[in-house]
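Holo prediction. Input below; ligand is flavin-adenine dinucleotide.
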Amino acid sequence: MGGVFSALYLQRQGWDVEIFERSSVPLVGRGAGIVTHPELRQALADVGRSAETDLGVSFDWRITVDRDGKEIARLKRPQISTSWNRLFEIVNEVLPKERYHLGKEFLRCEEDADGITAYFGDGTQARGDLLVGADGFRSQVRAHLLPEAQPVYAGYVGWRGLADEARFSGAMRDIVETFIFHLPPGEQIIGYPAAGQNNDIRPGHRSWNIVWYRPTDAAKLKRFLTDDTGREHAISIPPPLISREVIAEMRADAERLLPPQFRAAIDLIDQPFFQPIYDFETPAMAIGRACLIGDAAFVVRPHVGAGIVKVVQDAETVARCVGKGEDVVAGLKAFEAERLPMGRGFVDHVRKLGSYIRPSFASEAERREAMMYAAPDALMGETAVLDFLYRDEPPPYLRASA
Ligand SMILES: Cc1cc2nc3c(=O)[nH]c(=O)nc-3n(C[C@H](O)[C@H](O)[C@H](O)COP(=O)(O)OP(=O)(O)OC[C@H]3O[C@@H](n4cnc5c(N)ncnc54)[C@H](O)[C@@H]3O)c2cc1C
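Structure of the complex:
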């Protein structure tokens, strides 16, 4: 996303851009549900896609339910949910195809007084005035330029999956347009509408996206990352390789712990997968003629669904700060001055939202602070929204011990 939006924003400034993607096949079929924010609609409009573009599924209500599935709190919060796939499809239409190169794995770069050269795994290279490192969470640009910086595991995973609306029956049909929250002790589960297969957003063809956050210590994570052949994967494991035993365990726990809406949805998810949750803060975003944006720079826990907004804002800021390219290094320093505090603010705020997801607390004060974010008002008021970016004071539900 960052690579594509950077290219589009820079192109608007008159830059001659090329995009290099490691994957040798087109990036289609990524199924993750993405909750959108107004800032994303603005970015789409900026790069030439109408803000009216049919982005995804609209829904109005958020509810919190108890263990029996009974509603205990409600909040009106209109929102649109889309999928990674749909978003990529939308931007792909304005992408300069001849400038998008597949099968180009960045390995390293070298900078001199006149420019910067990137070297790729297939033996080719590319030279330019500016290198935007938008290569995601496991960024090789970052590993090359800032080898010391490493993500920190947050101590929990998010189990995810999409349940097809077409397979919903009975009362389940009524929930598909609702964002539902539930809090098992020390855990959190949310479910919200998302586009269905092939980005279908017609009623009856949509899906419901589940994320179940569960404390998972390092030893357990190691077991989760080990596939049925005994091979241990680093950081994350491809969904089809997750051990059958680990999935069976999760399903058994769902029966034991979750309200009926979530149990029914999980039953319908054929291929659940988990995402280990990490925090990462880069020490620098501008390194000479290179910069890091998006997940390469800051990995924010998923609770506010901010990854896409953060990366498109980084992309817009890079393009605005480097302008026509008179002084790229100074432009990138200005970009860094604007976005480094922003990225730190994102990570810090969202870390607090997830602070409740743990088996125990070091002190009563720590427990009180964490539990404030787990009250239904706070949970529904802060999850998947970016209000924190614009307010001077915390809202009433976060004020008690603020
Ligand atoms: C399951 C899931 C659900 C999510 N849900 C949401 C949500 O609801 N809302 C939200 O805002 N965000 C969500 N996110 C986060 C969001 O997808 C990311 O924050 C966002 O995509 C980051 O954009 P990026 O450009 O930094 O990295 P990415 O989109 O990850 O792109 C990095 C690209 O770089 C390529 N690449 C990697 N290494 C190399 C290399 N060495 N050379 C060349 N290319 C390389 C990769 O193939 C990839 O295409 C979710 C993420 C996941 C995994």
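Residues 61-83+157-278 form a domain with the D-Amino Acid Oxidase; Chain A, domain 2 fold (CATH 3.30.9.60). That is the main takeaway for now.
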